[in-house]
Amino acid sequence: MDADLEALDALTEGNLQQIIESWECFCTGTDSFLSGDLSVAADSDEYAASVRALSHYGLTRLVGDHFLQALEESFRKNAVSKFWKSFNPSSDKTAASTVSSFSNVISLMSQEGSEEMLTASLEEICMEKVYQEKLLSILLNSLLSEGDVASELEDYISTLLPRHQLMVSSVLHSTLPQPFLGILRLYFRKILEELSSMITGECEDGYEASVDSGVGFTCKSDMASRAGAMEIEEVYDQSVTLKNNELIKNIGKLVRDLRSLGFTSVTEDAYASAIFSLLKIKVQYLAGDDYRSPVLESIKEWIQAVPLQFLNALLGYLGDSAGHEDSNSGLKSPLASLPTCYPGIDMPSEELVRWQLRLEYFAYESLQDLRIAKLFEIIVDYPDSSPAIEDLKQCLDCTGQHSKLVDSFISSLRFRLLTAGASTNDILHQYVSTIKALRIIDPTGVFLEAVGEPIREYLRRRKDTIKCIVTMLTDGSGGSATGAGNTGDSLLEELNRNAENQESADYDDDLVTDDKQAWINAMRWEPDPVEADPARGSRNRRKIDILGMMVSIIGSKDQLVNEHRIMLADKLLNKSDYDIDSEIRTLELLKIHFGESSMQRCEIMLNDLIDSKRTNSNIKVSAAKATQIDAKQDEGDMSLEVFDATIISSNFWPPIQAESINVPVAVEELLSDYARRFHEVKAPRKLLWRKNLGVVKLELQFEDRALQFTVSPVQATIILKFQEQASWTSKNLAAAVGTPVDILNRRISFWVSKGILVESPGSDSDDHIYTVVDEMSETNRNGLAKGTLEDLSANDEEGEGSLASVEEQLRKEMTIYEKFIVGMLTNFGSMALDRIHNTLKMFCIAEPTYDKSVQQLQSFLEGLIAEEKLEMRDGMYVLKR
Amino acid sequence: MAATPELFLLITCVNSRWHAVASWTWDAQDETCGICRMAFDGCCPDCKYPGDDCPLIWGACNHSFHLHCILKWVNSQTQPHCPMCRREWQFKA
Description:
The structure holds 2 protein chains of 2 kinds. By secondary structure, chain A is mostly helical.
């Protein structure tokens, strides 16, 4: 400042005059430059002289600033408005049109030749800019030609060019109309689509040749990019068509123009978003609703083939201009400003690698979102959809958004599966598939735990869950018509697999004693995912065991074993041959899983069958000998030949409902004969007949046909009565058969439904007359043809099989505690369910120990309420008075 | 109901095959073995399967036990007595 003041003092009149003259000359020169009148260049000497004179008097800054301002004004006035006008055609009409609607943009883009317009106007404005830069350089030259320039002035002069650059871009940015970005985006998208279709078309022809592997390709093109713009053309001629190259060149020019105007980040945004939206569309198109084929690989290939190639070419093209741009552009985004390649190192540029990572992550994410949204359907057809699961696993491994999966899947489960309309079988099926599918995605089982919990909770509330699970476990043949047959198969398979695993696991355990093995195990340890519930130890999570998870639904294995025993008993009692191979197999598998002791009773039951078979044949042999000796055989009478028996150890079977019937006399004789012979063979053991149990195969002969049936003894007895007499009243028949009338009516309905008997009202209102049908209509005949097949199931449907149901059994066991409960409630007045449960657990430790669950107690207490012994008030149980 | 029974068709049943179910029981007076307190129709604590594998045995005094139970008892005594009635133990012929 001091220097300046001194200089001011030193000014003479003449000096002042010279400054004013020079200034005027400089101003007019500048104006005429900017008006495009290059004729001034002729007397640029004069201009330069005036500039020099001004800077001589220390007015360099003034000169520079004024010049820049003039440049800005002219730029704003001429170039910018013209430039934007071409993108904003409606700006003439309304002032508010800067907020242009999207449709406007579309209409703009859809116009033919809009690309040319974009390029042309860009070119124009760039020309303008270049022209201004030229002017600026003239000024700089004249400033610098002064000779010795003070170093601080030199600094100032060197900032002029960047300042100009900054000015250009800020002017453009500040006047940026809204639709411009959209236009850019649409432009890039259009170009990319063109490119994509071109490349995919080419890929069909010679994909292997041109882009055989992604890495190889990028290497090759990278080399090309390093070789410069001219060589790009040559190298690309081999793989990419000339037109393609032309396209990229056009884009490259455009991008370079945009960059030079300071639109680097805007441009980058535009083509990035264009690429991403194209990628998203591609992913959706490839993934679609087909879960049977993996798509991830083809998506990756596509990324290699189209967007990366595009970027590579683009970056390569820009690469040669990077030299001068780097020097004067401070606005480039960090991603864009990196050098395109490492000299001497043969690998894809860092820039390209970054792009690839970005694109792949995006592809993973969009595929993952797509799959997660459809996870329910994917799991429904699980074994077929495993490729989709694999894809999803890879995506999740990369993105780590497992919690998204859990949330979305749980909500779709609640919405679609855990509803009253879904059958328990279906839910279980889905659960098993879920376990299997998630096991692939996440071997540690953390997410499975989270997903499975709602299903388990829901299933626990269903009554038939246990039954369904046991059926799934044991019914390997998958006979059920609901389509759950596969499930049964898979669970039995699971049993099998599990058995093998268990053995190998034992083997593993032995090895752990070895230090080396322990070390290896320790090295293999991996921490649980962060989402893991710390409340649960990781050790029990290690092995995802489908059976274990199924059992955990029920709560205890005892219940499952018990249910299995009842179902097994039912199955065994309805066998007419002694074929129990599959049951033995199942039992062996269950024994491995649930322990030998818990399956003891089932084992005895199966053993009974084996023993029965042996005893049965022994008895028959002895009977045959006897008849030979006696040589007298009643004709038409039933012999032991057509009679078999299953002899059970009743203590180990589930309680059996006794229902006395009077079997036909011939059968009665056989029974006593059989019992006598058994007593001989197995003295001093005796037989007690369970006459209502068993299976009878009958062939009923009519005039023109014979019909076969497989029925229960009661039904057989009933129909055999009609051999003696063609018409019975229900009371008489009930007396003859030896059952109460209501039971008879229920059993006889089988024959009525088969069209063998017909029911007609009798003299009494509650007495019916059953008569044999003498002539069958066609419809009946058809019904009969199918009849035999459904017999056994019809038998089941009649309800109340010969075995006491689980509930009844439970009821029986619980009645012991009724006294306790009543006593408790008299003492305490009212008690909540939990308290009753706990008290029982505390005090009933002597035989019989109280081992029921809260749910079981609750259902029992509900029974007591129904019997009006108890009452429920505000969630508390009280005695009914 | 004017129809007489003769007009109705009678069912003829041929080729029937009857599969009955019975449960066996030891013909003992008591329900449970006096030694192991297990049901006779079950088996003694050492056995897995009831019936032939774990038979019953009667003494001269007509008391019955699981064979395995009474054998254990008899073998542990120098002069075996029936655990129920204290008479000298002899197997019933």
